[in-house]
Amino acid sequence: QVQLVESGGGLAQAGGSLRLSCAASGLTPNNYRMAWFRQAPGKEREFVAHISNAGVTRIYADAVKGRFTISRDNSKATVWLQMNNLNADDTAVYYCAATSRYSGTYSSTGGYDFWGQGTRVTVSS
Question: 71-95 burial, b for 16+ CB within 10 Å, e for fewer?
Fold first, then answer.
């Protein structure tokens, strides 16, 4: 069974940094495209970043472009989200997602078949 487990969330001050990790099991990492989504209280889940199977292609939401970096190491079956220059709008539960499909779209929750439980990020100013 595919399992994605996020970690690294916590409290950060505005302008600070956090690094989230997503540990995958039950899948062959090279066959899966990965993404990070986030969901703030009272809001819908929104796309944050996507990374291709081998990590060559990286795509970011406008709200985080230039501040966040998605990366992966398939030998470790791990995906990271480096978050720099955090602001209060980054406060949310962050979810790791995976798909082996080429159907769907990278920025839609419907494009992914497997999800982690989420890790909470709180940014204070």
Answer: ebebeebbbbbebeebeeebbbbbb
Convert the pLDDT of each residue in 41-96 to its tens digit.
Answer: 999 999 999 999 999 999 999 999 999 999 999 999 999 999 999 999 999 999 99
**If we measure between CA atoms, which residue out of 71, 69, 96 comes closest to residue 83?**
69
Q: Whole-angstrom Cα distance, residue 49 to residue 65?
A: 9
Nearest Cα to Cα of residue 93 among 104, 81, 77, 85: 81
Q: The dihedral of CA 51, 52, 55, 57: what is its sign? A: negative
Query: In this predicted model, what pLDDT tens digit does every residue of 4-25 receive, in sequence order?
Result: 999 999 999 999 999 999 999 9
| Interatomic CA distance for residues 19 and 22, integer angstroms | 10
